[in-house]
Design goal:
It comes from Arthrobacter jinronghuae. It is an enzyme of class 1 (oxidoreductase). Its cofactor is FAD. It is found in: Cytoplasm. The chain is α/β, with parallel strands linked by helices. The radius of gyration is 24 Å and the shape is globular.
């Protein structure tokens, strides 16, 4: 019995094997801790199985469809015939399967104990799984998120979430997408490339409402050009299903008809019935409230990822998982504020941003203390070669560092790396202007924007 009890005791016990949980597990074993990782589904969680990875695979298929349609512009004789969703799904699923195998192998090779089953917090130091009790000197909660709906809006039939949208074996003729945030605009982009007649319904005044105004304007212009329709500023009221599909009604009585409706109104925290409240954790609308060091205020219990209020991004989960492992080890890791976490929306054109928008910078620093620079990608050779357009916008504190970088354009997400270094290392435009950026790349547009902001523009 003693051996069994010892096998169920860990330095760190983690509930949830998604981005936050498995990153915490990997960093914890590096730091010499014994780790138990509890997962009811598949390691990798939402991101790997029905989030980031599968949606990006679909977006790549969509990019190839677009390339086929426009091939003649580049002197290539090709035709676009149709979308084979069975083959698209096979490609997508093979990517997921390969990454899943790799992750399983990595977790096993590090000596992490994976406990399969649904866990429930039963005290400050224990989690019960399948009737067995496991003990952790420290507990990390990483139970992730689910595709949420609106109050009174039932999911079923022709009203689907991204979970069902990722498994469709046919292409609908038409679709209404409820929500113009990241998930909504990404699916709109895919489906438009696949030949679907798409309408986005967003209650707030614009698509991607959390982005800088200049980026929003460019995206909406690009979507109009692509034939993606959208209604903004009027909230959804109800949806009715019939034999032909759905009829979506807005608050002002306007209606839209389509084959189906995708509900893309964000993700909710998976925390219900897991014993969190009973253990004394502070909860708010299902989220676990922590201090800035991700401690819940109860025992040695921490929370990471989508269950902690803020940006719901896989890489935020990774970072927080690593952070908590280092915090437990006494390494005093640096807190990264949500505003300085890089964000990429993989629609076409792509959006990438980090730091303060112009509006937020003026709010924080005062309008007179903010300077901005927009560099139009029309002057960038690589962007022209790709047949794309867009801009890079930098926001700086007057006579101070760059506090925000906001970008839109084909494949521009790949440039977020330098942008996040600029903002997080509080670089001045003069610092960046003196660095050499490779030509011809889209990356050099970051250098051009910095040169202009430093008062010495080269092109434009």
């Amino acid at each position: 019995m003693a051996d069994k009890a010892a096998a169920q005791e860990f330095d760190i016990l983690i509930l949830g094997g998604g981005s936050g949980g498995y990153a915490a597990a990997l960093r914890s074993v590096e730091l010499g801790f014994s780790v138990g990782l509890i997962e009811k589904g598949k390691l990798g969680g939402t991101c790997l199985h029905n989030g980031c990875i599968p949606t990006k695979a679909l977006l790549h298929s969509a990019e190839i469809a677009e390339n086929a349609k426009t091939a003649s512009k580049y002197g290539i004789n090709a035709t676009f015939d149709s979308i084979d969703m069975t083959a698209v799904n096979s490609y997508k699923d093979n990517i997921i399967a390969g990454k899943f195998r790799g992750l399983q192998g990595l977790i096993k090779s590090k000596g992490i104990t994976v406990i399969e089953g649904e866990g429930k917090l039963t005290s400050e130091k224990t989690i019960e799984v399948n009737g067995e009790t496991y003990t952790g000197k420290n507990i990390i909660l990483a139970t992730g998120s689910y595709s949420r709906s609106l109050p009174g809006l039932e999911i079923g039939g022709k009203v689907i979430t991204s979970d069902q949208a990722l498994k469709m074996d046919t292409v609908p003729k038409s679709a209404v997408i409820l929500g113009g945030g990241v998930i909504g605009v990404e699916f709109a982009s895919v489906w438009n490339s696949f030949g679907v007649d798409v309408t986005i319904v967003e209650g707030l005044p614009s698509l991607v409402p959390n982005e800088d105004a200049a980026i929003i304007k460019q995206l909406e212009r690009a979507y109009k050009k692509r034939g993606i329709k959208f209604s903004t500023g009027i909230f959804f009221d109800n949806v009715q299903q019939n034999d032909d599909g759905v009829v979506v009604t807005l608050a002002d009585g306007k209606t839209f008809e389509a084959d189906l409706m995708l509900v893309a109104v964000g993700r909710g925290p998976v925390t219900a019935n897991l014993g969190y409240e009973e253990a004394g954790l502070t909860m708010d609308r299902g989220f676990v409230i922590t201090n800035d060091r991700l401690h819940t205020g109860v025992g040695n219990i921490y929370a990471v990822g989508d269950i902690v209020p803020g940006l719901q991004l896989a890489h935020r989960g990774f970072q927080q998982g690593i952070f908590v492992a280092e915090e437990i080890a006494g390494l005093k890791p640096v807190v990264v504020d949500d505003v300085n976490i890089p964000k990429v929306t993989y629609c076409e054109p792509e959006i990438a941003s980090v730091g303060l928008t112009e509006a937020k910078a003026k709010e924080k620093l005062g309008a007179e203390n903010v300077e901005v620079q927009e560099y139009n990608l029309a002057g960038n050779g690589k962007t022209s070669i790709l047949g794309s357009s867009g801009l890079i916008k930098m926001v700086r504190e007057k006579d101070g560092p760059i506090v925000g970088v906001h970008m839109i354009g084909g494949r521009i997400g790949e440039q977020i790396g330098e942008a996040q270094l600029i903002v997080n290392w509080e670089a001045y435009p003069e610092d960046i202007a003196s660095l050499i950026h490779g030509h011809p790349t889209q990356n050099e547009a970051i250098g051009e924007a910095a040169m202009a902001l430093a008062g010495k523009p080269l092109h434009g």
